[in-house]
Write a structure and sequence with these properties.
Layout lengths: L14 H17 L6 E6 L4 E6 L2 E7 L19 E9 L7 E4 L2 E6 L15 E10 L18 E4 L15 E3 L1 H11 L4 E5 L1
Parallel strand pairs: 1-10, 8-9
Antiparallel strand pairs: 1-2, 2-3, 4-7, 4-10, 5-6, 5-7, 7-8
């Protein structure tokens, strides 16, 4: 893994990631959720994701969130805000670049995708899927705003050159190697995710 994506000191880190972690913990307490060993903090403004374990920074990754404005509304194509959890993990052991459609591995890598998928133009779901579920009723959970029913994931992408800039249809995109590293690091641990 590149130096850009690994925490160098294992400490809590400073700046945006630490502020988002504090906001996650405050919101978690307000909603009455038990603490989780792992926490992911996503900054739309900085297009970054921080992975914390027991309050210590594990890794930091560049991401791409939605081209559209943030939104929890169905069909908005916006990345949803607020506190979430990882509801499902899909793709363990799949090779880097594996294409998923409807959360099912298609048996080919994005570089070998058939023309109808137009891999150079269409943003594909690749490598691993961390399917998010909202934890805030009326914000990102429930009728008219449900993150899980909108199929919002953290996943790999066939457009790694666009990572670091808004480029998704609502999901949080990582480079294939980074989403594998994150997926493996989280294993099956219950994980909170704050998107802000």
């Amino acid at each position: 893994m590149s130096a850009e994506t690994r925490a160098s000191d294992g400490g809590a880190g400073g700046g945006t990631g630490a502020r988002l972690l504090a906001a996650l913990e405050q919101r978690r307490r307000e909603l009455g959720h038990a603490p989780r060993e792992d926490a992911l903090c996503v900054s739309l403004a900085e297009q970054r994701l921080w992975h914390y374990r027991r309050g210590a920074l594990v890794a930091e990754y560049p991401v791409s969130t939605s081209r559209a404005a943030p939104s929890c509304v169905p069909d908005s194509l916006g990345t949803p805000l607020g506190l979430h959890e990882i509801a499902e993990r899909i793709g363990a052991g799949a090779p880097a670049g594996m294409v998923f459609v409807g959360r099912v591995a298609q048996g080919f890598l994005w570089r070998d995708a058939p023309p109808e998928l137009a891999p150079a133009k269409k943003n594909l779901v690749t490598t691993r899927i961390l399917w998010l579920a909202g934890l805030e009723d009326g914000v990102n959970r429930g009728t008219g705003c449900d993150t899980h029913s909108r199929y919002i994931y953290i996943h790999g992408t066939n457009q790694p050159e666009k990572i670091g800039t808004p480029n998704s249809h609502g999901c949080v995109l990582l480079r294939d190697a980074d989403v594998i590293a994150l997926f493996d690091a989280l294993d099956d641990r219950p994980t909170h995710v704050l998107i802000a």
